[in-house]
Amino acid sequence: MREKWPEWLRKWKGVLGKHQYALLVIALGALLMLLPSGGEKTEGTESGTEVQTDCFDLEAFEEKLADTLSQIAGAGKVRVTLTVDSGSRRVLAQDREQDRDGGGSVSTVTVGRGSGTQEVVPLQTLAPEFRGALVVCPGGGDARVRLMLTQAVSALTGLGTDRISICEGNP
Asked: Which of 2, 50, 74, 134 could make an S-S bridge to 81, C-beta 3.0–4.6 Å?
C-alpha cells in the first residue's frame, strides 16, 4: 500500500533535496545563535578597572624562550634577559549606576563562589608589555644567526627589532 504525496509537498521535497546541505548549515547556525553564551553582560557593565596579577612568570618565560632559540641552527646555548614595562593585568567588569540627578557610582562586579567567598569577574587578561631583550649566544657574531634570532624574539615578544640586542658570548 503506497500513499501518494500531495503536489505541493512533492515540490518542496525536490527543492529540499537539491539544497539539503545548505539548509542544514543555516538551521545549525540559527540553533547556535539561540543557545545562551557563557559570558553574559548586564546593562551598565563596562571594563576599566585593571588589577595587577602575578600570573606571568618572567623567569620561566625567559628560560622557555632561551630553550626555543637554542634550537636555531648555529646559535648554540642561548641566554635571554627580558625587561618589562608592566606585568600582566586583568581588566575587571564594572557596574555603573546613575541617579536621575546625573550622579552615580561605579562598583566592581563580583560573583559568590559559596561558603561566603566572593571573586571578581575578569573581562580579559592583558599580556605584559616588554621593554627590551638581550640575547647572548656563541653564534651571535654570525649575521644570519643574528637575523633569525632577532626575528624569533620579535615574533614571540612583540618587540621591534630596535629593542632587541644580540651579542656573541662564550660557548
From this structure: 134
CB 135 within 8 A of CB 167: yes
* Structure-derived torsion over alpha carbons of residues 45, 48, 54, 56, reported in degrees to the nearest 10: 90
67 phi and psi angles, rounded to 5 deg? -60, -40
What pLDDT, in 10s, does the model give residues 58-76?
888 889 999 999 999 999 9
Distance CA 145, CA 90 (A): 37
Which amino acid makes up residue 124? Q
Cα separation, 164 vs 69, whole angstroms? 14
| pTM for the full predicted model | 0.51
Terminal-to-terminal C-alpha distance of the chain: 89
Q: Per residue in 93-109, pLDDT tens? A: 666 777 777 677 766 66
Q: How far is Cα 123 from Cα 14, in angstroms, rounded to an integer? A: 49
Domain boundaries defined on the chain: 1-35, 45-168
Find out whether 86 and 54 touch, Cβ atoms under 8 Å: no
Q: Which residue has the cell 578597572?
A: 49
The alpha carbon of 65 is separated from its chain's Cα centroid by a whole number of angstroms, namely 19
Give the chain's length: 171
Among 56, 50, 51, 64, which Cα is nearest to 130's? 56
